[in-house]
Specification:
single chain, about 350 residues, alpha/beta, Rossmann fold, seven-stranded mixed beta sheet, four-stranded parallel beta sheet, elongated
């Protein structure tokens, strides 16, 4: 192994730079290997300035930095890329251009840091001959094959701090505070932050809720003398028999953008006579300095990805299982996305402490 490439795709997440740093240092120090960084996800292969050398000086000081020094693109699918042709926007498969660019760069392996979409593209590129290694990244914690993804812990801490801050103003003004959190189809951020922050109601995609049950919980608290309530609402939560709420539609390339369920919940609560305020935490969950856990996990992932590449373990993804770093087939990791199990310990614990999921 003489030269490897690294790219970061999809939405950014705290810990990406820690992975890059660990991979570069391990490749150079342990294997005497050159490292190339691909800018802006797979798009970098299509740009003459999109591939840059990465040395030890380039990764010095980036461990505590959020974001990614390479840039990311969550709309850069080379198998379905929108381009202008004869003045019209068309969708084209440019994957062969990616393959040619990688071969020109003489890369022996490509480390792909991303979520399910980015890793699925990596698997498809492997089927066309590209030697890829996956590294699971997403604040949503929804990638199969691993117990946790880097970025999740930082997002969780940010969400928990937000709940802590909302408690004081909610109690002061006797209000219901609704906090909408990210997570797409997985409710891990809302569940974990809701329990850690002491929320009274947690709404997640895996457990459809009833508006009247949410209000019943708020009314019960008022009757017991608690004149405020905190609701942790995942962006993908939906009512029983209803649909998820989207702030923007999708098309054949772009996924629809979730958002707005918090506002609907807040409006319903207001109509029942309880003053409410809605906060959408949004991209604050993606930004900022990664936690110690995310730095620790990301560093282990980055180093393990290089070792896996050196062994020729392509079309696989590094993963955390039983506290140990291992690797799994990309196909296995992508087969079944992680979701909150309504019967798991965290949900049972929350219910036992009186937290409502709006389904009873």
């Amino acid at each position: 192994m003489k030269r490897i490439g690294i790219l970061t795709g999809g939405g950014d997440a705290p810990g990406l730079n820690a992975v890059i740093r660990a991979a570069v240092k391990t490749a150079i120090i342990q294997y005497g290997c050159e490292v190339l960084g691909i800018r802006d996800g797979y798009d970098g292969f299509l740009d003459k300035q999109g591939i840059i050398p990465l040395g030890l000086k380039d990764v010095s000081g980036i461990l505590p930095r959020g974001g990614t020094i390479l840039g990311a693109a969550n709309r850069g699918n080379p198998f379905a890329r929108k381009v202008l042709q004869n003045g019209r926007e068309v969708t084209m498969d440019v994957s062969d251009e990616i393959i040619r660019a990688m071969k020109r760069s003489n890369m022996d392996a490509l480390l792909v840091l991303g979520g399910d979409g980015t890793l699925r593209i990596a698997h498809e590129l492997y089927q066309k001959g590209i030697p890829v290694i996956g590294v699971p990244k997403t604040i949503d914690n929804d990638i199969g094959g691993t117990e946790v993804t880097f970025g999740f812990d930082t997002a969780l801490n940010t969400a928990t701090e937000a709940i802590d801050r909302l408690h004081t103003t909610a109690e002061a003004h006797h209000r219901v505070m609704v906090l909408e959190l990210m997570g797409r189809e997985a409710g891990f951020i809302a569940l974990h932050a809701g329990v850690a922050g002491g929320a009274d109601v947690i709404l997640i995609p895996e457990i459809p809720f009833k508006f009247e049950s949410v209000v019943a919980k708020i009314r019960q608290r008022v009757e017991r003398g608690s004149l405020f309530s905190i609701l942790a609402v995942s962006e993908g939560a939906k009512p029983v028999g209803g649909e998820q709420v989207f702030s923007r539609g999708g098309d054949e390339i772009y996924l629809p953008r979730l958002g707005g369920i918090g506002q609907r919940v807040g409006e319903y609560i207001e109509k029942q006579g309880f003053e409410s305020r809605v906060t959408i935490l949004g991209h604050l969950q993606r930004g900022g300095t990664p936690t110690a856990f995310d730095r620790w996990l990301a560093t282990r992932y980055g180093a393990a990805a290089v070792r896996l590449a050196a062994r020729g373990g392509f079309d696989r993804m590094v993963a955390l299982r039983g506290g140990q770093i291992t690797d799994v087939a990309l196909e296995e990791a992508l087969a079944i996305p992680r979701r909150v199990d309504p019967n798991e310990d965290a949900v049972i614990t929350a219910r036992g402490m009186g937290i409502s999921f709006g389904d009873e």
